[in-house]
Write a structure and sequence with these properties.
This protein is α+β, with helices and mostly antiparallel strands and 426 residues long. The protein is 34% helix and 16% strand. The protein binds adenosine monophosphate and magnesium ion (MG).
Length: 426
């Protein structure tokens, strides 16, 4: 296949276009905010069996096959759909990340890697929206997600939109689960299914199409994070972490040991948490570590100093008696790693004025709590995902096991008090 990043950056005249496959049967209104039209298309075009749809890569997860059976656990169909959606988006992200790292675009001033990352965010969001709509066919569809189509609807973005469309359609064709080719208008409509405000009633999917963009661009950790809110509560979460080893990263400071890469964490309320490969290996139950002495604990935090106050987290760890240096990795991969006991504590203390978004924590929080952990703000309050697109948290977010939480909270409050009383560096 042609380089996707090449496709993204090349002038449109040089694009190697795929032969058209089935197209959406009618044009969409330019600001279509309801259920995407491809659902109607899907109902008239049943899924083709991957067995007679020759593709290089095998299709990811078979959500349809897993849903709807009698006696299945709550949200089983939604969980299967979410896994399928995240794995599909991860496939797109992985390909683009490899090509970013292999290319020299980081050094080209006119081809900002941030712009490339934006394409990938949008592509990931479109694929998740599409897969959810194809797999979950009952009820209304609402999604709270990071991206919208405003910039892409500008005339100047015509070429970029064309590139994103190619990227999405190539990923769909490679997977082979859906006999669909999206038009540019279909792409814009799919992006805008993420405009929901969420809130305390009804069901809302919550998506971060690429959490940890800086890690993504560095070749480090990132996650596709998808959760479902039902009446204001997170009821399921899926975290796709393409660069996290499937096995534990304890003692590795977040780096790979050469083992199988790619972990997909999932959790449903009341049913525990699991990890499997991004290709769908048998899921394994996971649980947070049982460490009760902070001397033996390690803690995760953001790689980026701009995202968390490393001085404050250092002070918290010291007060608690943690001996190990921080394990700094990007994205909600931290929640996944914590949930399977790779480390004992996650500390996140953004700089003053930053407002946390629900898509940065919803999936990670349920994976940790269903693995037996606790996630709260710095005052010990549960996170409330029912208030719209933002989280109303006091000072920071902490996560650990039940044994360590009381002493962690005490250390957090002491360290915050001390920092607030310290003389200003000016
Ligand atoms: P992490 O990789 O854990 O540092 O977190 C990545 C997420 O932090 C991104 O997806 C952003 O939504 C979010 N973020 C962006 N800017 C900031 C900031 N100034 N402070 C805290 N978080 C931020
Ligand atoms: Mg994010």
């Amino acid at each position: 296949m042609a380089s996707r990043v090449g496709l993204l950056l090349a002038p449109s005249s040089s694009l190697a276009r795929n032969p058209p496959r089935a197209r959406l049967p009618y044009p969409l209104p330019s600001h279509h905010l309801g259920r995407p039209t491809y659902r109607r298309f899907a109902s008239s075009a049943p899924l083709r069996s991957p067995l007679w749809w020759p593709r290089q890569a095998p299709p990811l997860f078979s959500a349809r096959a897993m849903s709807g059976s009698a006696g299945s656990p709550p949200y089983a169909a939604e969980l299967a759909a979410a896994k399928k959606a995240v794995a599909l988006a991860a496939r797109l992200c992985q390909t683009v990340q490899q090509e970013i790292l292999q290319s020299d675009i980081q050094s080209k001033a006119d081809k900002s890697p941030v712009t490339v990352a934006d394409y990938v965010h949008v592509g990931s969001q479109v694929l998740v929206s599409l897969a959810l709509n194809m797999e979950v066919t009952s009820g209304s569809f609402s999604m709270v997600a990071e991206e919208d189509s405003e910039d892409l609807r500008k005339d100047s973005a015509e070429e970029i939109l064309e590139h994103i469309t190619d990227l999405v359609n190539e990923t769909l064709a490679e997977d082979g689960s859906y006999n669909i080719t999206l038009s540019k208008e279909g792409i814009l409509s799919a992006i805008d299914t993420g405009k929901s405000e969420g809130g305390p009633s009804g069901r809302h999917w919550v998506l971060d199409p690429i959490d940890g963009t800086k890690g993504f661009l560095r070749g480090g950790q990132y996650a596709i994070a998808l959760a479902l809110l039902d009446e204001g509560k997170v009821v399921l979460g899926v975290l796709g972490c393409p660069n996290l080893p499937l096995a534990s990263i304890s003692n590795l400071n977040g780096s790979s040991s050469g083992d199988q890469m790619g972990a997909l964490f999932s959790a449903t309320v009341g049913c525990g948490a699991e990890v499997e490969s991004l290709e769908g290996s048998p899921p394994q139950k996971i649980s947070v570590c049982t460490i009760d002495n902070p001397v033996n604990a390690s803690f995760f935090e953001s790689y980026e100093g701009a995202h968390t106050m490393h001085d404050l987290t250092g002070s918290i760890a010291e007060k608690l008696g943690v001996q190990a240096p921080p394990v700094r990795i990007d994205s909600q991969a931290k929640y996944g790693a914590l949930a399977r006991g790779d480390g004992a504590i996650y500390l996140r203390f953004p700089h003053k004025g930053y407002k946390e978004k629900i898509w940065d924590h919803a999936a990670g929080a349920i994976v940790v709590t269903e693995a037996g952990g606790v996630v709260t703000d710095a005052s010990g309050n549960d996170l409330d995902f029912s208030k719209g697109r933002f989280l109303d948290v006091d000072t920071g977010i902490i996560a650990t096991n039940k044994q360590l939480m009381p002493s962690l909270l005490k250390s957090v409050q002491e360290a915050i008090k001390e920092k607030s009383q310290a003389p200003s560096p000016l």
